[in-house]
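Step 1: inspect the first sequence and its tokens.
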Amino acid sequence: MKLRLEGDIVTPQGVIAGHLELAHGRIAAVEGVPVDASRAGEGGRAVLLPGFIDTHVHGGGGRDTMEGGDAIATIARRHARHGTTALLATTMTAPIAQIEAALKALGPVCRERGAQSARVLGVHLEGPYINPDRLGAQPAHAVPATLVEVQRLNEFAPIKVLTIAPEMGGHLALIGPLRDAGIRVQIGHSAGSHEDGVAALNAGAAGFTHLFNAMTGLHHREPGMVGAALAYGQHAELIPDLLHVHPGAIRVALRCIPGLFCVTDSTAAAGMPDGEYALGEHRVQKCLGGVRLADGTLAGSALTMDQALRNLVQVLGLSLPDASRRVSTLAADYLGLADRGRLAPGAWGDVVVMDAGLQLRRVFVEGEEIDVVADA
């Protein structure tokens, strides 16, 4: 059975007015004529975008990835209701036994998508292989990485992205073997210098974790890890909640890093009212749109990807096609997924339908329509 969706279809090249067809979980056809992207959705026309892809998700719907059990099912359902059609479940720095337990719970969900849920593509292992001097909101359980340990963790659930501090002893030598194993190494939670960052990129590091946050900043005599990213980085993730990074700094990154894509770094507080929530072993408070530790440190976010898109367009002034690339296509390309993050024949039927104000109206994950109104 085919489903026909009509409206203004957003592609990386621009916007076309027409229709697309979904069949057997994939996009069967896309037809239309070019229109002015700035007028998408006028006259009540629907705006069709590729489903959002979020490579940094700690939680949502009141649940945290590190809880194990059925937490990831709740998280995947809640983010699907906000237009995220595929995600990486992201861990916290913790004792290895706790990370193992979380990955064991994630393994089955990575193999089979649940009903009304985003596709869990795999794991972003954010810690414990980070610098204890740049924990940010991570608990104090940082340890050096070994290839044997990462390989063992990868057997429980597929690790697609791994954050490390390259300046820590032995880490630089691990980057090449990890890359060869299909794991994208990201530089993050790092006290390293500009030279450390360049060395990591030369060794095969693929990108940077939540650019600007929890890394050495840019100074004109000490460019730091941020300077390495801006000068040489091809890919980086960034949190566009307008709290983690000033809009001016986001614009700098957009001009410097061609593959800059957006993530939420969302916690259990995403999609939930103000209050106290878990983030690994920490308790965090959601208030005034942000999530913080008791000392005021930003601790992940309450951001959802539909709001990320609105921030890019309505605050930063990006065109709709460019903003769509930043929340979808570029992340898919980074992960090597040619059949996600784009509205094209043969791609998975991951579609977000919005109105002219970029408010969510419908979501489809692999052709399944998601209930965007009822609670998860």
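Step 2: inspect the second sequence and its tokens, then contrast the two.
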Amino acid sequence: MLHIDDTDDVRTVTLDRPERRNALTPDTLDALEAAVVDPPTPVVHLHGAGSAFCAGADLDAVSDVAAATEAGETDAACEFAAHGQRVARAVADSAAVVVAGVDGAARGGGVELALACDLRVATPEATFAETGVTFGLFGAWGGTARLPRVVGEGNAMDIALSGRTVDAEEALRMGLVSRIVDDPATVAAELAVADHTALGRLKPLVRATRSDEDRERAERDAFADLVARNADALQRD
């Protein structure tokens, strides 16, 4: 589920499936895309309910993709990756400045969602991990393009290949987050004080040279191959 709360200057978007650590279903991805495409505010604050920011893709959805792949639906995995990539691009291309308030665990697609945001702010309890490699996959929602740009190739390789957990302090040191604060909503409110026209003009200028389509296409193809190779193991009872 997704909850939206608008004030004059900040749209707060809450991923609200705390019992599933805010894992993203296809419907939730669509709702998130709609929430960020043309918001009525200059700033969007994205955060998670409960103890997690976002656990990434819902494992039932991944299981369905694996089953479809094994049944011969060869485009299922590419379509799954393309769906997440499209939503991440919508976040990145939003007319608003999007602040990820990482207030707990970010895993897999949750890390990729945060990477698509313009600013990542962590609470002391925040942790990050790209865990896909531990069960034969990797994040395919734009993370292979965005992660090395944000933290550098060496750190990106470490995070992606090891699947290890990075705490808030290490995330700050490597540039994965910009600040550690008690309440990320205060940062969103701080940004909203700036001139709204300036915010809208500045964001696309900073992002102007960032085109991910070619890398995303290669990412989708590689992800689909891995789903095909690991379809049995990925399906849930």
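Step 3: confirm your contrast with the notes below.
The CA atoms of residues 4 and 13 lie 5 Å apart. The mean pLDDT is 92.
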